[in-house]
């Protein structure tokens, strides 16, 4: 298998085409005559409609076939490639309508992605701080709505190792519905509705890696966010869905005597690897795609990846901080 470059890894995570540099690929989604066109899911606001998701043509067609008693009224504009749905008075009513559609699709086995049903609700934002409604975690991609998470890289200083550190790397459980047995970031997880990112990071540190809360609060530091748009592959439960994502990024420097240990079954085991070993596994494609992105961002911040040693440095950095039009709390960092 050919080795993946850092730019290859970046493009696997940020795989949605750019209009300026990939116009042909971009046109496949936004040309009215394209078989792979997508529709912008709109939400009306006093300042005009805002795009809150990208829905595939096949899903729009199926949504139109669902009884209105389940999904409520739907308006599709074929010229503008837009769709308006779930426009009810309250968040609770909108959430109920969205969940009714997702359960309808799950019960009818319409889309593969619903096989990974989690019984966990994630937010869809109508503005940068307003939750419009909630949707089953596994189904956010059916709406093409923003997805949020937290990712942390745990490292130990080691002057004898390459770049003076070693990094804790978990292997995902073989029973995971997405990316089974692949490598991951030290600790990571999704953000539920109105959950504080730092508190989520502390929770995940305990659940996934047995890291004590006091240690996390003392040493875990937020370093920023990353934003990108992913088109799903076979490892994610269903190919071809559009995932706009924002991740809150954290580092934690650990004492040499602290060991990461699996706790909740999300990870099978943890390895303490040199930077060279991590980069070699990345080049072999062994990491979950957005986890490779998080590691690239870590390498940039720690001076491991530089304009001097990476010819595609500028594009890599641009792609890990993609400008997204969707509203939500990530816009505070844009």
From TrEMBL:
It holds the Pfam family DUF4743. The keyword Hydrolase applies. The keyword Hydrolase applies. CDD domains: NUDIX_Tnr3_like. Gene3D superfamilies: Nucleoside Triphosphate Pyrophosphohydrolase. GO terms for molecular function: 8-oxo-dGDP phosphatase activity. Residues 147-295 form the Nudix hydrolase domain. PANTHER family: THIAMIN PYROPHOSPHOKINASE, THIAMIN PYROPHOSPHOKINASE 1. This is NUDIX hydrolase domain-like protein. It comes from Pseudomassariella vexata.
């Amino acid at each position: 298998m050919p080795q993946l470059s850092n730019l290859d890894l970046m493009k696997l995570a940020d795989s949605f085409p750019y209009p300026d540099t990939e116009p042909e690929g971009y046109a496949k989604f936004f040309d009215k005559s394209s078989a792979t066109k997508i529709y912008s899911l709109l939400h009306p606001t006093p300042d005009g409609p805002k795009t809150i998701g990208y829905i595939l043509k096949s899903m729009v067609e199926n949504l139109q076939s669902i009884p209105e008693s389940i999904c409520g009224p739907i308006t599709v504009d074929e010229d503008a490639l837009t769709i308006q749905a779930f426009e009810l008075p309250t968040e609770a009513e909108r959430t109920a309508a969205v969940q009714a559609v997702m359960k309808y699709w799950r019960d009818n086995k319409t889309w593969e992605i619903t096989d990974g049903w989690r019984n966990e609700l994630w937010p869809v934002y109508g503005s940068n701080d307003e939750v419009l409604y909630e949707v089953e975690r596994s189904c956010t991609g059916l709406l093409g709505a923003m997805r949020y998470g937290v990712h942390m890289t745990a490292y130990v200083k080691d002057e004898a190792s390459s770049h003076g550190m070693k990094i804790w790397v978990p292997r995902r459980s073989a029973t995971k519905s997405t990316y089974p047995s692949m490598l991951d970031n030290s600790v990571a997880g999704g953000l539920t509705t109105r959950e504080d990112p730092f508190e989520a990071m502390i929770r995940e540190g305990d659940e996934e890696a047995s890291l004590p809360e006091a240690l996390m609060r003392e040493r875990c530091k937020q370093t920023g966010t990353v934003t990108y748009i992913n088109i799903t592959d076979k490892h994610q439960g269903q190919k071809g869905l559009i995932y706009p994502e924002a991740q809150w990024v954290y580092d934690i420097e650990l004492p040499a005597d602290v060991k990461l240990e699996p706790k909740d079954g999300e990870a099978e085991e943890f390895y303490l690897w040199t930077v060279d070993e991590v980069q070699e596994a990345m080049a072999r494609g062994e990491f979950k795609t957005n986890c490779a992105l998080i590691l690239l961002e870590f390498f940039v911040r720690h001076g491991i990846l530089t304009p001097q040693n990476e010819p595609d440095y500028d594009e890599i950095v641009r792609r890990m901080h993609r400008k997204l039009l969707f509203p939500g709390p990530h816009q505070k960092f844009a």
